[in-house]
């Protein structure tokens, strides 16, 4: 399991379900499910969804965790 996959699953667990994460993120449950499957196959969460998940989880899951290619964490910047 990759890091992004772990973080998406954490966000789902924190909110209680894909449907609740979707509602809090302003997207459909199908969008959350597709993102979960995409990251499981080595893909990425969209930048917009990364920001929405960060807000929905009150930064428990951050955009940097979901998309470190776009938002490297302070210690990761070289």
What CATH architecture do you see?
Orthogonal Bundle
Percent of residues in β-strands: under 5%
Largest sheet: none
CATH topology: 434 Repressor (Amino-terminal Domain)
Would you count the extended β strands for me?
0
Please tell me the overall pLDDT: 92
Question: Termini distance?
Answer: 26 Å
Evaluate the radius of gyration. Answer: 11 Å
Could you spell the SSE succession in H and E letters?
A: HHHHH
CATH superfamily: lambda repressor-like DNA-binding domains
The number of helical runs is 5
CATH class equals Mainly Alpha
Structural class: mainly alpha
- The global form is globular
Low-confidence stretches: none
What's the number of domains?
1
Helical content stands at 55-70%
């Amino acid at each position: 399991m990759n890091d992004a996959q772990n973080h998406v699953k954490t966000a789902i667990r924190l909110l209680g379900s894909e449907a609740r994460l979707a509602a809090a993120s302003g997207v459909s449950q199908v969008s959350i499910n597709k993102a979960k499957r995409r990251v499981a196959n080595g893909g990425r969460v969209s930048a917009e969804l990364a920001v929405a998940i960060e807000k929905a989880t009150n930064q428990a899951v951050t955009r940097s965790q979901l998309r470190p290619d776009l938002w490297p964490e302070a210690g990761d910047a070289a």
